[in-house]
Amino acid sequence: MSTTTPGATPAAAVREQVHRLLDAADAHDGLAPIVQAGHPVLRAVAAPYDGQLDSAELGALVELMRRTMHAAPGVGLAAPQIGLSLALAVVEDPGMVDPDVEQVRERPRLPFRVLVNPRYEAVGDERVSFYEGCLSVVGYQAVVARLRSVRLTGADETGRTLDEVLTGWPARIVQHETDHLGGTLYLDRAELRSLSRADELGARWAGEPRPETAARALGFPLH
């Protein structure tokens, strides 16, 4: 009798794909290529992780995702972004150097962690607007009004249950990465009038504690 979670990908198929990713990374400086917008895997609902990998395989995959995220660089990476439609993500954020910006953005340091089958739900209805970018939409950024606080549920790579409330930038990162696992890109939630290149002008827009100058210049609302 099978005990596989409905919708889960068979273990053999997941293991084969993970081994291909690991082998390919060995030939490319230990990193996985990050797929870009337009790739179907970014629009698919990721299969739940149901123990398809043994502990060594899962550890190697997590380490590959961590290296790839750091090298990009980014503060989060979901498995679909390296072509693997599995509900896993890694996150880590060093936080802000400027304490005033950190306070406005509520962006403390977020230690490295692994999210397995994560889900989030709103805690209150307050939303805040900031610029976001994405490793799978290279060269662009846009303002997204995200829930300020969310309840995160799921598990970590050891199987320990996650059930906690996150606020500010950690909540934003969790929403962004969890959305990837449902086939949603940040652009689907963005104020499209705010869309800008990640160039010198874009850096000025995104460098403000809140994107107030960009909102006035480009004509979009802020939450």
TrEMBL record:
Keywords of the record: Hydrolase, Iron, Metal-binding, Protein biosynthesis
A single GO BP: translation
InterPro entries noted in UniProt: Peptide_deformylase, Peptide_deformylase_sf
Annotated active site: E177
Domain of life: Bacteria
Cofactor, how bound (note): Binds 1 Fe(2+) ion.
Residue sites binding Fe cation per the record: C134, H176, H180
Molecular functions per Gene Ontology: metal ion binding; peptide deformylase activity
Enzyme Commission number(s) from the entry: 3.5.1.88
Catalyzed chemical reaction(s): N-terminal N-formyl-L-methionyl-[peptide] + H2O = N-terminal L-methionyl-[peptide] + formate
Cofactor(s) it depends on: Fe(2+)
Any Pfam family: Pep_deformylase
Similarity annotation: Belongs to the polypeptide deformylase family.
HAMAP family, sorted: Pep_deformylase (MF_00163)
PANTHER family: PEPTIDE DEFORMYLASE, PEPTIDE DEFORMYLASE, MITOCHONDRIAL
Role played: Removes the formyl group from the N-terminal Met of newly synthesized proteins. Requires at least a dipeptide for an efficient rate of reaction. N-terminal L-methionine is a prerequisite for activity but the enzyme has broad specificity at other positions.
Name of the featured protein: Peptide deformylase
Organism phylogeny: Bacteria, Bacillati, Actinomycetota, Actinomycetes, Micrococcales
Annotated gene: def
